[in-house]
């Protein structure tokens, strides 16, 4: 079933809001570096929830997407402990650092949980009042 136009517009507008905020916040100079990186995890999770929803727009995906985004992001965090040459090559590029990260830290996990929770809330707001399966 195609995504209703109103939901598609809300999803695209949401992505247009969260992406620049997340990117700008990660480079905000008037905060401490660790806070920029940690809080950036919240925006990262919300972005992926919204992005996935563009392709899987259903009522059940509103809770499934944030759950899977959280699980996959946690797996990516653990993958940062692994440094084979091909991953080091990917991490040497800006987009590689942004997508898969460079250094493992336990402190990221609460921010991933918060971001996935906020992604769930955001998706619920997008679908509120809409007729989706």
Give an account of the 3D structure.
The protein is mostly helical and 133 residues long. The protein contains six helices and no strands. Helix 2 packs across helix 3 (61-79) and helix 2 (33-55) runs parallel beside helix 6. The longest helix has 23 residues, at 33-55. The chain is globular, with a radius of gyration of 16 Å. The termini are close together. The relative contact order is 0.18. The model has no long low-confidence stretch (mean pLDDT 87).
Question: How would you summarize this macromolecular structure in one to three sentences?
Answer:
This protein has 6 helices and no strands. The protein is an all-alpha fold and 133 residues long.
SSE layout:
Blueprint: H1 5-26, H2 33-55, H3 61-79, H4 85-91, H5 94-100, H6 108-127
């Amino acid at each position: 079933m195609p995504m209703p136009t109103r939901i598609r517009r809300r999803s695209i507008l949401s992505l247009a809001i969260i992406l620049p905020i997340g990117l700008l916040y990660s480079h905000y100079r008037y905060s401490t570096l660790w806070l920029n990186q940690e809080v950036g995890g919240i925006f990262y999770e919300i972005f992926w929830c919204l992005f996935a929803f563009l392709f899987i727009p259903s009522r059940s995906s509103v809770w499934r997407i944030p759950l899977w985004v959280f699980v996959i992001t946690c797996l990516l965090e653990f993958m940062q402990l692994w440094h084979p040459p091909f991953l080091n090559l990917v991490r040497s590029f800006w987009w590689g650092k942004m997508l898969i990260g460079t250094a493992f830290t336990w402190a990221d996990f609460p921010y991933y949980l918060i971001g996935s929770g906020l992604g769930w809330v955001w998706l619920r707001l997008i679908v509120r009042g809409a007729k989706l399966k």
